[in-house]
Write a structure and sequence with these properties.
The chain is of the alpha/beta class. The chain is built from seven helices and 15 strands. It has one domain: 3-Layer(aba) Sandwich (Rossmann fold). The longest helix is centred in the N-terminal third of the chain and has 16 residues.
Length: about 240
């Protein structure tokens, strides 16, 4: 089973390509449990005001791909989710919004999510859900000291580039909306400043799938890798591995 990290992009423009393998893995997990009427998939949303509408749109998009039983886990910003809500699910999907709010609200379930993923339950993180999947999560920010290093519009309501504890499913830092929001520059700056050793920046409508020791890119964008290199940073793209 895999860890699926989607760099954002809504509404879907790709016939659900970035979600299909995750849903297929959840269905396989359900069959292993002897369930024949589709997997139970937790849909975790941390949003103020528009959570019901966002949940309905997400469910409709996934319903168009396959048959599944959604398990809604909806929380306003600043309110912790109950890890017990994830009991008995065959897949865990963490949606997007304000990344620091997701980190704080999902934090009580970090141990439970890690346990389930270790046991074979697939995980899909979309935008904020992808960012907090890492051990050290990029929460936002657009400056290092007084120096702007990324677009302010992508700051997630933070000024200084800020990292915090994430779920710990992968050891690479993750930034999202890479080409579309200019957040690749934030990852480069964070790596050069030593805030993280390495990371990936994922374009919208693109998924990085981590599974069985391999990394794969699905759909039409790129995944940019940034690592320390002789006192500076080295950048490359995995986009040529794309498949759909």
């Amino acid at each position: 089973m895999g860890i699926h990290l989607v760099g954002g992009g809504w509404p879907p423009e790709d016939d659900g390509a970035v979600y299909r393998e995750f849903l297929s893995e959840a269905a396989e997990r359900a069959l292993q449990d002897g369930r024949l009427d589709g997997p139970r998939v937790a849909l975790i949303l941390v949003r103020d005001g528009d959570a019901p509408e966002t949940y309905a749109a997400l469910r409709a998009a996934l319903d168009a791909i396959t048959v599944f039983e959604p398990v809604p886990v909806l929380s306003p910003e600043g309110v912790a989710i109950d890890p017990a809500a994830l009991a008995g699910v065959h897949g865990i999907l963490v949606w997007g919004g304000l990344t620091p709010a997701y980190r704080d609200s999902v934090d009580p379930a970090f141990d439970e999510i890690r346990r389930q993923v270790t046991e074979g339950v697939p995980y899909l993180g979309f935008s904020a859900g992808a960012a907090i999947a890492s051990e050290r999560a990029i929460l936002g920010g657009w400056k290092i000291g007084e120096v702007p290093v990324a677009p302010q519009e992508a700051s997630e309501d933070l000024e200084e580039i800020t990292l915090g504890e994430g779920i710990g499913l992968i050891d690479l830092a993750v930034d999202v909306h890479a080409a579309q929001w200019g957040t690749l520059a934030r990852l480069i700056a964070a790596t050069e400043a030593g805030l993280t050793d390495s990371g990936v920046a994922i374009d919208e409508h693109t998924a990085l799938i981590v599974g069985d020791g391999t990394l794969r890119v699905v759909d039409r964008g790129s995944v940019w890798t940034v690592t320390h290199d002789n006192g500076g940073v080295r950048m490359a793209t995995m986009g040529e591995m794309s498949e759909s």
